[in-house]
Design a protein that fits this description.
alpha/beta; Aspartate Aminotransferase, domain 1; Aspartate Aminotransferase, domain 2; 2 domains; three-stranded antiparallel sheet; 14 helices
Length: 408
Amino acid sequence: MRELAGVLGVNPNTVAAAYRILRERGVIETDGRRGSRVRPRPATTARGSIRVEAPAGVRDVGKGNPDPVLLPPLGEAFAAVARRYAERPGMYGEAPVDEEFGRLARAAFDADGVPDGPIGVTSGSLDAVERVLAVHLRPGDAVAVEDPGWGSLLDLVPALGLRPVPIAVDDEGPLPEAVERAIRKDGVRAVIVTDRAQNPTGACVTEARAGELRRVLAGHPGVLLIEDDHGHGIVAQPLHPLAGGTDHWVLIRSVAKAYGPDLRIAAFTGDAETVDRVLGRQRLGPGWVSRLLQQAVAHLWVTEAVDPAVVARSYGKRRDGLVRALARRGVEAHGRSGMNVWVPVPDETGAVAGLVAAGWVVAPGARFRMEAGPAVRLTVSGLGAGDVEALADAVAGVVGPVVARSYG
């Protein structure tokens, strides 16, 4: 970057900013020790392609998958559903939400203090977010998104013709003043918040922060609120829902992290008008999410195939252990919940390349940020008992001590 700045006769910070913009727009990508390079694919390629493939002998902690050991076996659940199906096959014209699935989902929402509302089912969290945005907003509308935030969501919003507006986050979730500014200054029509296990930072909305955010949203009842609680079933922290202060809202829960990504099931609730609009539009497309899958998930819930406390402890031990190990080495790291740890770095490309050389592939922060500073994401789900200290040594050796600062 310094060489290019000298050739062009500009400040090195200008070149660094240009590189950042090119990464965010998908024009260039980080490619390990080879540095940054122009993508061979169109600039519309998803952020998920901004990754480094693990060479032979290199550990990959960048993919973000759950620990397969903690996922329940599915054979018995599908066998039970198949036996019921043999007696009574599913047909056209049936309710889109399986009765038992809907009852159990609503009971779980009630137990966590989520306002009353009808139940809908989509093929995962992102499908729900897309459908909710589509029934309320029009191309050109602004949407407040967390920064850093879920890369797939940062791709989805502009793909729908909407304008993403970044809102800064800290360990307790979105900053209330950032949400207020996005609504007043940028005119956002919708706000999307991750309640727990925020990807990539592990942020978790606390009771105090939830109260502040509710007060902000109550002052703007016309703003659509979308809450993503994908961490349900894998976190120990309680849910503090924000819903109730706006006219239109939804809260979404995917089973991907706790029961398996390939199940493609998310339950959502919200105000009656929003849920009715989504289900009505869904009927004109896929019609419904397979009731066989809904029944299989309901069976897993009833038989308590997953113990959330055990899963939360397993991820928490690895995540908290890594955060503490990095802190002992003077490295700033974030991760209050879920399976990810976010580490701010002074030079993202250099950090990614250095960690590959040290034997670890991490997720480049460019996949998850708009205006937030450079960082890398580490997923702890694949770490064994002896891996935490080794990974912390590698990160500290590449990053070095970092002065604590807000990653938002």
